[in-house]
Amino acid sequence: MVMDIVGFYLPPDSGERVSFKITLLLGYSVFLIIVSDTLPATAIGTPLIGVYFVVCMALLVISLTETVLIVRLVHKQDLQPPVPHWVKYLVLERAPALFCIHKKHSLCPTLSSQGTDLELSHHDREGRLLGLGLPPSRDHAPPVMDNILHEVTAIRHFLEKRDRCREVAKEWLQVGYVLDVLLFRVYLVAVVAYSITLGTLWSVWQVA
């Protein structure tokens, strides 16, 4: 269980966490097969150690399911639609404030956007210089100028589309990060509550 909790510190967008938790689940399954023959057989019911193993297996399956959902959410962000407004409000605004979740901020999109604006401004200045300081006019511009303006416009549209895709990908990654932290805390509370309950039952049975 400790290794399963440590596995949450792997990046959710790398895919290594799924492989790690599947390996844990397979290893635990083999361990249960080996230990099942050594468990004491009782006519009253399942021994406490057997309940412990079964619940640990259930928690591992729940952890793996949560990891698959998060990886599916943050995978191929460029192909996903923009984040809905209600998701932004609940996950990116309300949840971090209520549960004290630190949101990760990236400067790369901002720098990219600034670089795009600078590049476009540079192309605009070049176009005005080639046009002798006058706004481009298709009536008096030579064919070469029309081709240059067409290429600059195509480049501008491509850069704007790339920036929009990066912004959508960044938002989905942020949503996945917040949900991952939130589900990790819920899972940690469940593990702690289960451990306390099991320890209490064991203490009561020892006294009785």
UniProtKB/TrEMBL annotation:
<keyword id="KW-0812">Transmembrane</keyword>
<keyword id="KW-0628">Postsynaptic cell membrane</keyword>
<dbReference type="InterPro" id="IPR006029">
    <property type="entry name" value="Neurotrans-gated_channel_TM"/>
</dbReference>
<keyword id="KW-1003">Cell membrane</keyword>
<keyword id="KW-0406">Ion transport</keyword>
<dbReference type="InterPro" id="IPR038050">
    <property type="entry name" value="Neuro_actylchol_rec"/>
</dbReference>
<protein>
    <submittedName>
        <fullName>5-hydroxytryptamine receptor 3A</fullName>
    </submittedName>
</protein>
<feature type="domain" description="Neurotransmitter-gated ion-channel transmembrane">
    <location>
        <begin position="2"/>
        <end position="109"/>
    </location>
</feature>
<keyword id="KW-0770">Synapse</keyword>
<keyword id="KW-0472">Membrane</keyword>
<feature type="transmembrane region" description="Helical">
    <location>
        <begin position="182"/>
        <end position="205"/>
    </location>
</feature>
<keyword id="KW-0813">Transport</keyword>
<keyword id="KW-0675">Receptor</keyword>
<keyword id="KW-1133">Transmembrane helix</keyword>
<dbReference type="Pfam" id="PF02932">
    <property type="entry name" value="Neur_chan_memb"/>
</dbReference>
<keyword id="KW-1071">Ligand-gated ion channel</keyword>
<keyword id="KW-0407">Ion channel</keyword>
<dbReference type="GO" id="GO:0045211">
    <property type="term" value="C:postsynaptic membrane"/>
</dbReference>
<dbReference type="InterPro" id="IPR049944">
    <property type="entry name" value="LGIC_TM_5-HT3"/>
</dbReference>
<feature type="transmembrane region" description="Helical">
    <location>
        <begin position="20"/>
        <end position="39"/>
    </location>
</feature>
<dbReference type="InterPro" id="IPR036719">
    <property type="entry name" value="Neuro-gated_channel_TM_sf"/>
</dbReference>
<dbReference type="GO" id="GO:0004888">
    <property type="term" value="F:transmembrane signaling receptor activity"/>
</dbReference>
<dbReference type="InterPro" id="IPR006201">
    <property type="entry name" value="Neur_channel"/>
</dbReference>
<dbReference type="GO" id="GO:0005216">
    <property type="term" value="F:monoatomic ion channel activity"/>
</dbReference>
<comment type="function">
    <text>Forms serotonin (5-hydroxytryptamine/5-HT3)-activated cation-selective channel complexes, which when activated cause fast, depolarizing responses in neurons.</text>
</comment>
<keyword id="KW-0732">Signal</keyword>
<feature type="transmembrane region" description="Helical">
    <location>
        <begin position="51"/>
        <end position="74"/>
    </location>
</feature>
